[in-house]
Amino acid sequence: MSAESPLPRIALVGNPNVGKSVLFNALTGAYSTVSNYPGTSVEVSRGHCEIDGVRYEVLDTPGMYSMLPITEEERVAREILLHEESRVVLHVVDARNLERMLPMTLQLVEAGLPVILVVNILDEAERLGMTIDIPLLQEKLGLPVIGAAMARKRGLKEVREAIAGYEPRRAVFGYDSDLERDIARVASLLHGEYRLHSRAIALLLLQRDEEICSLVALTEGEHSVHVEKAVNEIVFERRTDLHLRISLERRRVCKGVLEGVVTQREGREKTFAERLSDLTMNPWTGIPILLLILYLGLYQFVGVFGAGTVVDFLEGTIFEEGINPWLVEAADRHLRWYWLHELLVGEYGIFTLAMRYAIALILPIVGTFFLAFSVIEDTGYFPRLALMVDRIFKRIGLNGRAVIPIVLGFGCDTMATMVTRTLETIRERIIATVLLALAIPCSAQLGVILGLLSGEAGTLIVWTFCIAGIFLLVGFLAAQVVPGERPMFYMEIPPLRMPQPRNVLVKTYTRMQMYFLEILPLFIIASVVLWAGKMTGLLQGLVDLLTPVMRMLGLPEEASAAFIFGFFRRDFGAAGLYDLHTGGLLSPVQLAVAAVTLTLFVPCVAQFLMMKKERGWKVSLAIFAFVTILAFTTGVTLNFVLNATGILG
Amino acid sequence: MKLTPKAEEILEALWIATEEEGENSAHLSTLGVGPEDEGLAELSRLAYVETRGERVYLRPEGRPEAQMTVRRHRLSERLMMDILDLKGASGNARACELEHLLHHGVDTKICTLLNHPTTCPHGKPIPPGECCRKARAAGSVGVVALTELKAGQQGEIAYLATSDPQKMQKLMSMGVLPGNNLSLGRTFPSFIFKVGNSEFAVDEDLAREIFIRKG
After folding, report:
1. d(CA B167, CA A453)
2. Does A497 touch chain B (CB under 8 A)?
3. In B, which residues are within 8 Å of A399 by CB distance?
4. Which of A247, A277, A388 sits opposite B177 (nearest CB)?
5. Which residues of A touch B121 (CB under 8 A)?
6. pLDDT per residue over A250-279, tens digit each?
7. Which residues of B touch A99 (CB under 8 A)?
8. Residue closest to B57 by CA, chosen among B14, B88, B89, B96
9. ipTM, 2 decimals?
10. Are the CB atoms for A207 and A246 separated by under 8 Å?
C-alpha cells in the first residue's frame, strides 16, 4: 500500500494512560508502543485495519490533555487534528476519570471533528463501585458513545461497528451568553478555510494560542488585523484569565451532561494495588522497594543473566567457535588484498569487531535491560520513582521526570541521550546530557568494571563513591551555571497495573529495533575508523600522545591504548584494563584510578554522535572537552590522594 | 453620614490617582466630572476634597473615607468573581452597583466570607479593614495553600495563584480546577493528592500555588 493513497483515516486521541495504544493494537494488530509513563510515546504510530471491506489508516496520536497544547507531544497530536483529514476521531477516555476528560470531548466536538467517544477501562471503574449509563451519555452528548475495556477486548466489536456506521452530526454545547457573544464576534471575522470549526478557532484565539494566531494571520492575510483587534479588545475588556473562565464553563457543561450518568457506590476498601502504590511512595518503604527492584531487575536479570549467561553463549559459543573462524577462513581463502581482509575480518574488522560486538555483546545486555525496563515501565512504577527522587534531582538542576533518561543510561547511554528530548526545558536536556556522558556507565561498561573491581573490595568502594560524588557535584555545579528556567515537577500518577506480556514484548521489540537501526551503523563506522587508524599508523600515534598523561595518572604506558579504544567501545577500554590487570601490571591504586578515569572519560563514539545530533556541534564539543578534562583531573587528583593517604596501599 | 454613589465614585477615582498612581491631585477630566458636579460639591462640603482651578485635591480628612470606598469596590469585584461567578463586563457592572450598598458592617461580613482577600481580580491591592487586622492577629485561616495542609486532609480547590499561564493551563487540563475536591495523601517527598479518581504529584513550588478551602 503506497503512502499517498487516500485511505479514510481513523485518529485516536486522548489523555496519556487511557489505553489508546491498546485500542490501536486491537484495531490494527500492528506494532506500537503501549506506555504507562505519561507522555513517553512521542512518535505517532500508524497502522491499517479493515472494517466491512473498507480499508482504513489508523493513527495513534501522543497523549494530549486539551486542544491547547503545552508539550511537544500535545503539539504533535493537535497538528494531526489540525492538518490531516480524519473520517473518524476516536476520543478514548478513562471511565474512572470521565468528568475530568469529558471537557476535551467538548473541545473536539466544538472543533467540528467527527468524534466517537470510547469510555475505556470500564472494568476498573466498575471495580471502584462506579456505574456509567452509556446509552444515556450517548443521548445527552448526541454522538456515538461506546463503553469498553480494551485490555480485555470488551467493546472492540462495537467500536468497529460505530466506525463503519458513522454518520456526521453536529452536537452543540452552549456556554454562558457573554462568552458566546465573544466567541461569535471573533468567529464572524474569520473568513478563511480551516480544518477546525471557526468556533474552536475563536476559542483558541481568545486563549492566545500562538500557533493558531499565526495560522489565522497567514490564512486571513491583511484581514487578520481585524481579528487581532477584536481578540485584544475582548481580552482587555474581561481583564481576567479567559482560560480559567473557559475551563470552568466546560466543567459546568460536563457536570450537566454527567448528571444521572455516573453513579458512585460509597465506601469501598482500598485495593491491593492502591496499598502497594502507597508503599512505593513512602520513603521508608519506597527505598527498600527500589533497591529490591534494582537488585532483581538490574543486577540479577540484566547483569547475571543477560551479561553473563547469554553473552557467554552468543559470544563464546556462536561467534568465537562458530561464525568467526568460518568467516576468517573464508576471507583467508578468497581475499587477496590485505587492507580488505583487515577491514572485514581483521582486528577491527566490520564482521569480527562491529557485528560480533553489537550482536553478541551488546544486544543481550541491552535486550535484557530493555525487557526489565519495559516491565517496570508498564507497571506504572516510574512516575513513583520520579516523585521520590524529585527533591534530589532539583539540586542537580533536573526534576523527577529526568529519572527515565538517567535510568535508561545504565542500559545504553546513547539511547538515553536520545530520550533526553522528552525533558521539557533545554537546560534540563543539556544537564542530563552532560551527566549521561560523564557519570552514568552503560550496562556494557558497568559489567566489565564490576568484574574488574570485584576482586578488590576497596577499589570498588572508592570507585562507587567517586562516580556518585562526581555525578552529584557536577550536577550541582551545572545547575548553578547553565542558564534557563528552574524546572517544575508535576506528574499524574497512574494506578499500578500488572504489565501485559504482549505489550511488554512489543515495546521491547520496538526499542531493540530502534537500537539496532540507530546504533549498529555507528559501530560499523567506529570499526572502520579504527581500521583506518591502524592502517595509517595514526592509532599508534594517538597512543603515544597519551603516554605522558598516563604517567601523570601513575599508570603504565600500556594503559593508553585502553583509553583510546574506550572512546570507540566504551567497555573495550575497561576490557583493556582487564588484560593489564590479569597480566599483573596494575596495583590496587592504579586499578581504582584507571577505572574511575575510564568511567568518567569520554562517552563512546555512538553516544558522541547522538549528542551531536540532539544538541548540535557546539554544545556536544564543549561537553566532550569538559568531560575529558574533568576525567583526567579527577584521575590525577585521585592518584595523588590515594598515594598520599595510603588508603588502598 | 452616607455619601451618594456619585460622590463615592469621585472619591474612589481620586484615591487611585493620588495613592496608587503617584499624582498629587486629579484633573477634573480624570474624575469624569465638571466643576459644577453635585458629587464634587458634596465632598467639598464635607471638606474631604479641595478644588483648585481644574484640579481636585484629596484632603487628609477625606483619606479614611476614600480608602474604604476603594476597599468596598474591590471587595465587591472579588465577590462577583469568586462567589457569584460573574465575570467580565456583567460582573464589573454588578460590582459597581453593589459597592455602594456595602455599608454598616456588610463590607466586614463580605471580607470575612472572602477570607480577607488582599487583591482585587485585576491585581490591585484591597486596603485592609478592621476585620482583616483582627483576623491577622488571631491567625485564623480559611483558604490556605496546599503546603499548609496535613497529609490526610481534604478540601475544595479555591483558586490557583500561579502567575505562569502555562503552569495554570497544565494544572487545569489535568483536572486541578477551582471547585473540585482535593484530598492530600502525602507531603513528602512530594505533594501527592487525589482529584476525583486521579492521583497527582507536584513539587513544593507548585503546591504553594494551589489554594484550598479546608473542608
Report:
1. 47
2. no
3. 203
4. A247
5. 239-240
6. 989 999 999 999 888 876 778 888 899 999
7. 175, 196
8. B14
9. 0.80
10. yes
- Give the DSSP H/E element, type plus range, for residue B73: helix B63-78
Q: pLDDT, tens digit, for every residue of A354-405?
A: 777 778 877 888 888 889 998 998 898 999 999 999 999 999 989 898 998 9
Q: Quick one: pLDDT at residue A108?
A: 92
Q: Residue A469 — φ and ψ, nearest 5°?
A: -65, -45
Instruction: Say which DSSP state A154 is in.
Output: B
Which residues in chain B are classed under CATH 2.30.30.90? 144-214
Q: Count other Cβ atoms within 10 Å, centred on residue A319.
A: 21
C-alpha A172/C-alpha A183 separation (Å) is 14
Q: Are A606 and A519 in contact (CB under 8 A)?
A: yes
CATH architecture of B65-138: Orthogonal Bundle (1.10)
Report CB contact under 8 Å: B169, A68.
yes
Distance from the Cα of B31 to chain A's closest Cα (Å) equals 20
Cell of A637: 587528583
Does residue A128 sit in the same domain as residue A26? yes
Nearest to B173 among A65, A125, A491 (CB): A65
Q: What is the third-level CATH fold of B144-214? A: SH3 type barrels. (2.30.30)
Closest CA to B15 of B29, B34, B31: B31
Whether A498 is in a domain gets the answer no
Nearest CA in chain B to A208: B165
CA atoms of A462 and A578, how far apart (whole Å):
18
Are A314 and A364 in contact, with CB atoms under 8 Å apart?
yes
Non-local CB neighbours of A127 within 8 Å, separated by 6+ positions:
A271
Cα dihedral A422, A426, A432, A433, rounded to 10, equals 100
